[in-house]
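Deliverable D5.2: sample structural annotation.
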Amino acid sequence: MKQLFAIQTNDPTLLRCQLRRLQATLSLPPGEAIGVGFYLDDDLLLTKAPPKAEPHDLEAMLPQLRSPSLIAVSGATDGAFDAEAIDPFRFRRWVFAMVGGVEGFDAIRPALVEKLPPFIARQIRSATDREHLFALFLHELHQLGRIDDPNLSAEEAARCLRRAIRTLDSLARERGQVRQTELAAVASNGRALAAARRGLPLFYGLLEGMASCEVCDLPAEGTGMDPGDPAAQLHRRAKSVVIVAEPATREGFIEVPDGSTLAVGRWLDITLTPIQGLDET
């Protein structure tokens, strides 16, 4: 299974510090391609790299990282490296990544594309089921008139993700497919983070405060750190929510209930909702 990872933090300047803290948690095996979506100032950027002999180093790949959120996916590629078919995918300020797959997707794809407004359909660059689910998610946002709304709540984003998954299910049933798609997916616009899990593992955890930091050369309290140092105070106030498909250790992580979405708001509030539950209109 591919590794899927996302983080939302209250201080973009400390995201590199949080990544260093998570080194032991993230499992990025050698020989795998990687894709990363992140924000720099007001721009959404993607970087993708083909497999190499040693594991990819997110810190080394992103030396200027100052982002409120980040989404990364690593895994084996099928055949030649094709950056357009590698997650994450982006549209304006939205970034999306998924692991899992839709059985018989080629039969579903034409009907799915017919549901999309032309301006979204034209942005699809690959034949992957993952990018097409992203397009359904964007369609749900567009129907609300909120696709470019920076104040969209995480709960509303998660509701759109649930509806997109249910639309995918409906298209599959119409073509005689009984088995539901197994997936783990995340989407972010830099302020709201939404995730979904069905059939595949997905975990989340809260990181609160840092007593020391290798990146910033801050020693632990009692070993030379000045508690009045402004940098030390910022690190103590740092908070992040981490979402990961396969943590190296599950200590400190909570499993997302199977068949649920998870919403992480701007203030790192967390809401869990069943995918098949009744949504508000």
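Annotation notes: The longest helix spans residues 154-174. The chain has seven helices and 13 strands.
The annotation will be released with the project's public dataset once the embargo ends.
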